[in-house]
Amino acid sequence: MDKILRIQMGPDHPPKAVTEPIGDYAGLGGRGMTSAVVAKEVPPLCHPLGADNKLVIAPGLLSGSAAAMSGRISVGCKSPLTGGIKEANSGGQAAQVLGRLGYAAIVLEGKPAEDKLYKLVVNKDGVEILPADDLKMLGNYDAVEKLTSEYGDKICCLSIGQAGEMKLGAATVACTDMELRPSRHAGRGGVGAVMGSKGIKAIVLDDSGLSMRSPKDSDKFKEANKAFVAGLKKHPVTGQGLPAYGTNVLTNVVNEAGGYPTYNFKTGRFDKAAAISGETQAETETARGGQATHGCHRGCVIRCSGTYMDKDGHYLTKQPEYETVWAHGGNCGIDDLDSIAMLDRLDDDFGLDTIEMGATIGVAMDAGLAAFGDSAKAIELVKEVGKGTPLGRILGSGAGVAGKVFGVERVPVVKNQSMPAYDPRAVQGMGVTYATSTMGADHTAGYAVTANLMGVGGNVDALKPEGQIELSRNLQIATAAIDSTGMCLFIAFAILDQEETFQALIDMINSFHGLNFTGDDVTEMGKKILKMERDFNERAGFGPKDDRLPAYFRQEALAPHNITFQVNDADLDTMFDF
Amino acid sequence: MTSVSEPSVEIKITVAENRLSLMRLVFGYGIQFKVPAGTRVSNFLQQALCTDADYIENRIQTLFMDGRAVDDPESEEIHSPCTLAVSAAMPGVFGAAFRKQGTYSGLRRHCSQIRQDQENRVKQGRIVAVTVKCFNQVAADLGNELLEAGVVMNLKDFLDFWARQGSILEKDNPEVQINHTKIHAREVTEILCQKTGTLRIQINAANTNGG
Q1: Is B112 domain-assigned?
Q2: What is the reported pLDDT for A365?
C-alpha cells in the first residue's frame, strides 16, 4: 500500500486515472488518511458537491493482511449533510481487496463535464474508467448483480444507489459483503452524494492473482494476531454477546435504562421493545432458516451480523443493526421486525443511511405525514426517496431539511446530522460527544477504549460535571486512532477490558510495518487527527454555536428519569483543549 | 422469597428442544416474585434465578432497578415494588457506561440508583412484588431450568408473546395443557384472552430420542 490512485473526473479533460507514490501520507490509514487528504487538499469553503471537493476511500493500516478484523474501509470528504469534514466507515470486503491491490487510497477528484455515469475497474493489471449509463438509477442490489454478471463473482464493489445519484444528504456508499450483497455502508454524512457528484456509480475491485500483504516480521505478527483473536474470543461481548445477538442486543438494555429514544425523542422507553430486540431478532432469523451469526468480511472473528429472511424463507436483508432497528423501529413507534427489515433493505438498495432515514421518518411522523407506528406508511415514505419524487428528495436530504420543510421544532440533529440511538439526556456523556464531535451527532465518534489503557487524560473524576467532558474527550481521541487502523470498531470492547488485547493490536501494527509504536503514539495519532478535523471545520465556518444539542434537550425532561441535558456550554467549549 | 402466589392460570407446554430459546423470550417481559422488604438484591437474584453469588458478580455486568443502574447488588436492598433487569456485559459506550462499577459509569451518573429515602421504604419484612427481566446471555444461561421449574408472568404479556411467536410454535404442534386440560396450540389465545391476572408457565423439552 505505497501508492495513491487519483481519479480525475474533469471538467477540463475526460476522466483519467493517475497513480502516484504515497508521499507525505505514508503511515496513514483509514480515517487518518481520509481526514489528512481532505484537510490538506479540499478548500474548506467549497461546495460539497462541487469539483473542489474530493472523495477519499482508504483501507486501514492492516487491511489486506491476515490481521483479524482489519476489514474496515473509510470514506471521507467535505460532507454535504454537515458542511464539515466527514469520515464514514464500513465493513464488507472492500478494505481487504483494496489493500491487496496495493492502494493506500483512491481519491475521486474534480467533476465530469457532462451528466454521465462512470464505473471504475481496478485489478492487478491496472485501472479503467468506463461509461456506466446502463447502471443509471439502479438500486445497489441490481447494480451489483449487473456488475457481477460482467466481471464475475470474485470482485467486490463500492457503489451508490439512487440516493447517491440524486446527491441527497443521506446517501451512502455501499460495500459488498462476502456474498456480494451491497449490505454494508459507509453511511453517515452523505458521502454517497459526493460519489454521485463525481459521476462514479461503482468501483469494481478485483484482487484475483494477488496475495495477502506480508508483514515485516512474520513470526511476531502471527503471534500478535493469535493473541488478538484469543482476546476477542474470550471477551463476553466480542466472544458471546455480539455473535449471538448482534448489535441489536442493546435494544432491551438501553430501553430498560430509559435511554431509548422513542417517538422522535419524546420518551426514553418503548413499551414494545422486546418485540424488536436482538434476542427476538435472532430467534426470528434462525426459525426462518437465516443466520443469527455471520461475518461481514473474511477475517472477522466476532461475526456480529446475520441474515434476515422474509416469512417465506427468502433472503430479505442482512441482520439489521441496533441503530437501524431503533431508527426505523422504536423511534418511529414501529414494533414489527419484518417491516424494519424491509426498511433496512430499501435503505441499502437506494443507498441511504438508516440512522438518518429513521430519524427523518420520525420527524415526518411528528409533522403528520404518518402516524407513529404506521409501518406501511413508513415504507411508502422511504420508497418515495427511491422514486426521486419531490417528497422523497426532501426526506432523503435528512432530518434537518425535513424539519425545516415541515415546520417541526423537535429535530434531533447536531451539525445537521441525526443523533443515533442513545438519548443524550439519559447518557449525558454521550450527549457531550454528539455536541462536540467533528462529525456531527455520532455515537461512534467516542466509542470505547479505556482512558487508562490509552494513557490519555490522566485520572478522570467521572462524577464531576467536567468529568463528562474528559471522558468524552478521551473516547473521541481513542476512537480517531482506532478508526485509522482500519480495524472494526467492535474490537474496542475487548480492548476496553483486556490490556493484553490492546497490546496485541499494537504488536500487530508494529510487527507488520516494522514500527515501535506505543500506546502513547496511538494516542498522539488520535489527537492529531481530531485537531486536523477540528481545524478544517473552523476554516469551514464552524464555531462554538455548532457544538450544541438542540435547545429542547435542555428544556424537555425525558421520561422515565425526568432529566434534561445538563452539561453547560462553557464545559462543552473546553472539549478541544488538548 | 417466593413466586407470586395463586396465578389464575397454569399453562404447560412441551416443545422441541430447539424451541427452548424461543420460549426464553418470555424473560424479556419479566417474571414475577414476592420478597420481604429489605432483601439484598444479590441475595434475591441468587434465589430467584437459582444461581450463585459468583454468577451475580461476574456474569451479570449490567443491572437495573426501575431503570437505574445498580453498581453494588451486594449492598443494594429491595424496599418497595420494583423491576430488576439483568444482562451480561454490553457493547459500546453505552455498555461501558452502564457496566457495574465501570470506568465510564460517570457517563450515566444521572441514571444511577439512588438509595430510597427511609420514609419511602416499605416496613422491613413486609412482602413486596418484584418483576425480574432477564436479557441476552443471562436468559440463555439460566432460562431453561427456570422454565422447567415454572415461572409466573403477567398474562397480558404472555398473550403478546404468543401473538408474536405462537405461529412458529403452532407449526410444531406442541403438547399444551391449560389448567391440566390438553388443548391444541392454536386455541391458546382464545382461551387465555378471557382471563386476567398472572399465569404460571412451565416448559419442558420433548424427548426426541423416540422413547
Answers
A1: yes
A2: 98
